């Protein structure tokens, strides 16, 4: 088994490579990391290929002798790159994979941006049958195009593809900083822009957390997954015949409820909260298909997600860096 990993130096890529190399089920597997802006260390089980997936020649060389692909590389809100890298890059990967004599399985890590995240109202849990609906911007559109392209290659060529659709992926102290009123906020919303500047400074100093309300004025519910749970799902789907041409929601068993977050932090760390009205909509991704077909189960619940983030002690050699494009 030779696995091509794109986006190998990113958050999920690093954890996946470490998890696979430690998993006795894949003791004979080797990895080829396709790197562009950053690089990995080569070992006896891991080699490095260099270049952009937007270059067909690079893709052709990277896929030589490969049996499995785990495709993680993407772009965020970078319109000048997203079609070349995310869309054309996936097309070249699939085109070369479908004609490869060694190809066995292609795995795409998708995102809940493809079904609108919290931008749209849903009448029930979000399942794998929920229609695509990108929110404004190039990133969400690219997530829709990725899933549709993989699906169509399965229809056209019976390609053994699998998509794991993940919501916001957390590691280390990420979740703590998703709730920061300071300049160190991770992701969105940008809480400090939603309150007066003086209040934002005070909330940041005191550790006050936002209690996000949905468009109906209720505490918003939003989906997350810890990177360890996503990696365990990738490993469960890898070389699994039950994953062929399947789409799976990979997320916590229930969405994060901002009221429950505020209550837990008040009880355990005496932190205050402040209501933040919004026009966003609560949603709930249903992960039961992955449990049923893959035998997968997430480890992280709300309390573990919160407590692990607040207890994490970041070393001086491990600064918080968010790399975009991914």
Jot down its keywords.
single chain, 326 residues, alpha/beta, Rossmann fold, seven-stranded parallel beta sheet, two-stranded parallel sheet, 10 helices, 13 strands, 17% strand, globular
Pattern of helices and strands: EHEEHEHEHEEHHEEEHEEHEHH
| Helical/strand content category | alpha/beta
| Rg over alpha carbons | 20 Å
Low-confidence segments, ≥5 residues, pLDDT <50? Answer: none
Mean pLDDT: 94
Question: How many structural units, i.e. domains?
Answer: 2
Q: Looking at the chains present, what oligomeric state does this protein adopt? A: single chain
Helical fraction: 25-40%
CATH T-level topology of the largest domain: Rossmann fold
Instruction: List the total number of helices.
Output: 10
What is the strand arrangement across the widest sheet? 3-2-1-4-5-6-11
Which outline best applies?
Answer: globular
Q: Find the CATH superfamily of the largest domain.
A: NAD(P)-binding Rossmann-like Domain
Question: What is the makeup of the main sheet?
Answer: 7 strands, parallel
Number of distinct beta strands: 13
Tell me about this structure.
By secondary structure, the chain is an alpha/beta fold. The protein has two domains: 2-171 and 223-252 and 283-299, Rossmann fold (3-Layer(aba) Sandwich); 174-220 and 256-276, no CATH class. It has ten helices and 13 strands. It has helices spanning 11-22, 56-62, 79-98, 138-157, 174-177, 197-206, 227-237, 258-269, 288-294, 302-311; strands spanning 2-6, 30-35, 46-50, 68-71, 105-111, 161-166, 168-170, 209-212, 221-222, 224-226, 246-249, 256-257, 273-276. The longest helix has 20 residues, at 79-98. It is globular. The two termini are 26 Å apart. The model has no long low-confidence stretch (mean pLDDT 94).
């Amino acid at each position: 088994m030779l696995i091509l990993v794109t986006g190998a130096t990113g958050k999920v890529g690093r954890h996946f490579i470490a998890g696979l190399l430690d998993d006795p089920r894949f003791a004979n597997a080797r990895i080829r990391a396709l790197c562009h802006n950053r690089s990995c260390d080569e070992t006896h089980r891991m080699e490095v290929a260099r270049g952009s997936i937007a270059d067909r020649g690079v893709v052709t060389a990277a896929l030589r002798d490969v049996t499995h692909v785990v495709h993680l590389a993407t772009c965020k809100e970078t319109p000048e790159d997203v079609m070349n890298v995310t869309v054309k890059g996936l097309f070249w990967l699939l085109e070369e994979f479908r004609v490869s004599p060694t190809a066995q399985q292609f795995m795409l890590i998708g995102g809940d941006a493809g079904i609108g995240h919290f931008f749209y109202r849903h009448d029930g849990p979000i399942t794998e049958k929920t229609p695509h609906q990108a929110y404004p911007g190039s990133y969400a559109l690219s997530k829709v195009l990725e899933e549709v392209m993989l699906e169509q290659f399965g229809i056209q060529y019976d390609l053994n593809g699998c998509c794991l659709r993940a919501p916001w992926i957390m590691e280390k102290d990420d979740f703590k900083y998703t709730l920061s009123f300071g300049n160190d906020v991770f992701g969105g919303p940008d809480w400090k822009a939603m309150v007066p500047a003086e209040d934002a400074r005070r909330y940041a100093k005191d550790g006050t957390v936002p209690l996000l309300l949905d468009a109906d004025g209720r505490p918003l519910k939003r989906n997350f997954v810890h990177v360890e749970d996503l990696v365990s799902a990738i490993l469960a789907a890898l070389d699994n015949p039950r994953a062929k041409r399947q789409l799976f929601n990979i997320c916590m068993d229930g969405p994060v409820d901002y009221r429950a977050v505020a209550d837990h932090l008040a009880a355990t760390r005496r932190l205050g909260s402040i209501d933040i009205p919004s026009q966003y909509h609560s949603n709930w991704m249903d992960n039961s298909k992955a449990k049923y077909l893959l035998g997968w189960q997430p480890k992280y619940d709300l309390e573990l997600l919160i407590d692990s983030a607040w207890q994490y002690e970041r070393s001086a050699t491990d600064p918080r860096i968010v790399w975009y494009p991914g």
